[in-house]
Amino acid sequence: xxxxxWFAVTSHAAxxxxxxxxxxxxxxxxxxxxxxxxxxxxxxxxxxxxxxASSATHPTRGIGAARRWIEAELRACAAxxxxxxxxxxxxxxxxxxxxxxxxxxxxxATLPGRLGSPRVLVMLGHYDSRNGDVMDAEGDAPGxxxxxxxxxxxxxxxxxxxxxxxxxxxxxxxxxxxxxxxxQGLLGxxxxxxxxxxxxxxxxxxxxxxxxxPHGAQGxxxxxxxxxxADGLDPLLRLMLRGAAAEPSPRLKAQQELAAAGGSEDxxxxxxxxxxxxxxxxxxxxxxxxxxxxxxxxxxGGDHLPFLERGLAAVRFSEPFENYAHQHQNVRVESGQQMxxxxxxxxxxxxxxxxxxxxxxxxxxxxxxxxxxxxxVDARELSNDTRLMWIGVDGAxxxxxxxxxxxxxxxxxxLDVGPGARSALxxxxxxxxxxxxxxxxxxxxxxxxxxxxxxxGS
Length: 458
Ligand SMILES: [Zn+2]
Prior knowledge:
The two termini are 28 Å apart. An 8-stranded mixed β-sheet has the order 1-2-4-3-5-8-6-7, sandwiched between helices.
């Protein structure tokens, strides 16, 4: 009897299916324009410098002129769509990288989700720039790759997603933000993280920083590769190293408990990273996502960190190689080599694929239902079978149970169950040997983020 039941379950279990085909998503990705991206990157570089402390008032040079232009461009493409554009300003006091109090302005374009839904997804790029001296607010700092590339990607994605949402409304809100103050200490992103975390359930954040070129300094070329940095364990370990002085927030404490219950590879950032890799590789054919289990490049940072440190799912997209002759450099020729972050070193076709990757990852989730709640493995009795339990969500047309070996990076098996199911029994699948999660599905097979199932003994 046990054997026949075991086969009954495994005959339904299958490898997790790819994201379903979606003609609207495909046509949205098809409208991403390398020419428009190139024109916007050149325009941003033409403001001379976008240093956070550069002129806020000069009509053509400095960060003020740049942000007025970004806002006007976004307003132009928001016309007739649900996209809402806002310049959000806060005053940052003098600090290690700010000589005096400075206005930080984030240009935020919000594409609202279903009425009353608290879910929000975030796409970031930073429009401020710097040269060799982080305090130099006057000298040229074209910042074409770092980070006009990410800013142009945000603008392009916002405009195209706005049209897609007109055709098919989103379940979750997407916030597209061009933020300032990254080079002076992630100041704009930190403010945005505070604002969004107060009002929404932030489900996932992507920062696009240095996404302009598939070329390395030694002739390497990887035009279909993206580095995706995703590690949610990092802030928990840092808290631990800081010792008892740092009391974790309730959210980080809950994640510590999840990590201690075998979920160290399954924190929200890891699930978001897995979702992005799968969605991108399905919807941007030929594109490969290198999923790196680190919060960022070694000893470096970006605008996802203020979100990550709050225990939110937050990742970084970057090009496959970085060329340090074209990053944080004064524009000059040295030993016959052109130094500086100039538009000519950016490949707009590559930025177009990055933009498509963001849209594939974010729209597929924004159209999906919310994830299930209180997912757990029923561990009240010893058993070689595994029972998963969860609390359902509105709008779900079913649920998908996922499992993989503890040493596997990606989900290996899936079992779909109906909308009324609140538990699933996997016979002959031991909770001691496998890692489990549950997703909510809509009637098109679009899946929510996976939620790790910790064992629950009571
Ligand atoms: Zn940057």
